[in-house]
Amino acid sequence: MKKITLILVAGLVAIAAQAGINFDKASSIGLISTSATVKAETDPVTPPEELDQILYTFQGHDTYANKDKTFEVYVVLDNNDIYIKGLSEYYPEGWVKGTISNGVATFPQAFMGIFELWGDQYELTFDGATFTVNDDATVLTSAEGYTTSVEGELLDEFNNVTLTQVMPEAAVPATPTITAFVEDSYGHYVNMTIPTTDVDGNDIFAALLSYHMFVDKNGEIRGYIFTPDAYEFLEEEMAAVPYNFTDYYDIDVAGKQVYLYGDDIAEWTAIGVKSIYTVNGESNESDIFWYQIQQTGIDNISASNVVETTYYDLQGRKVDASAKGLLIKHMRMQDGTTKAIKVVR
Q: pTM, whole model, 2 decimals?
């Protein structure tokens, strides 16, 4: 898919789609036409670090796209003060702060932060809103909704908004899969499918899900670390990568495409990935899925050691064993490990 040069329109569309951003809208208000560097005159809102961030589901109507949307936001309650993170699809890291009085939370117009889009920077403003709050602040509603804007041009536009607190339960996440390991002119990347379900097929919350990758070098297994030295848009090292994270360059949302770097990459024999689901400080991990880069040892796998075999296409979709073409054969062994190889039928 990419890497891309930031001026390529096709690449811009791809990035906008993966980030959930309305490309037509962004282009119509000029957010792809100029190079801009913004220096904020005020600091963005942040809640007190010692307070818990509570997960809520967002349901609202996008008036620009004319469709309903559902995603996850965080709320922090501090006596009569209330903070909400995630109201902007363009800048989900941004917080807004309001005050609760007589069952109504009032959020004034405020600077949310500087976000980057296609190499340019923009100062995002929350245009103010009021929400009706129930007695225990577990449900917030606003028929009028809210907007965000850049220099007076509207970005997010929502009405009929409801925020509902959720009480996630601890769960073991389903095992992710690596469907391809590809070398292109920019380096090596993997395509992954990371389910947002548990091992029993029940839905879990993407906001609480992360993944951790591994490298097998001839039997020497190590965790893969994403470092600022290799990933120019990272500010600090990452081992576990949040499901919803993207740097808009090397790492796609949901691990759909992730570039890997290493001086010894030619010596890697397998790469692995596991999912981690964290609820109230308790983390549960999936099995590690291993993708064999080289077929050394694969031909020697005894059929009696394989307890389950499934097949996937290159888009990560499970297919019938009779499917034709280039497939990923996923084998679960008696010892609980998994192996994957490419097969052509």
A: 0.65
| Residue 4, φ and ψ in degrees, nearest 5 | -130, 155
Run of H or E residues at 55: strand 54-62
Check: CB of residue 61 under 8 Å from CB of residue 52.
no
Specify whether the CB–CB gap between 113 and 125 falls below 8 A. no
State the Cα–Cα distance between residues 132 and 343, nearest whole angstrom: 57
- Nearest one of 69, 89, 53, 84 to 161, comparing CA atoms: 69
pLDDT at position 319: 81
- Please state, in angstroms and rounded to a whole number, the distance separating the CA atoms of residues 143 and 200: 37
What SS3 state is found at 98?
strand
In angstroms, rounded to a whole number, what is the distance separating the alpha carbons of residues 314 and 133? 46
Please, which contacts does 77-86 make with residues 24 or more away whose CB atoms are closer than 8 Å? 77/51, 77/137, 78/47, 78/48, 78/51, 82/133, 82/137, 83/45, 83/46, 83/47, 84/163, 85/53, 86/58
pLDDT tens for 66-98 read: 999 999 999 999 999 999 999 999 888 899 999
Instruction: Give the Cα separation of 207 and 191 in Å (integer).
Output: 20
What the block records as the tokens of 53 is 């961030």
| Of 105, 117, 115, the residue nearest 146 (C-alpha) | 105
Strands 240-242 and 209-217 turn out to be: antiparallel
Q: Which two tokens stand for residue 175?
A: 């095992």
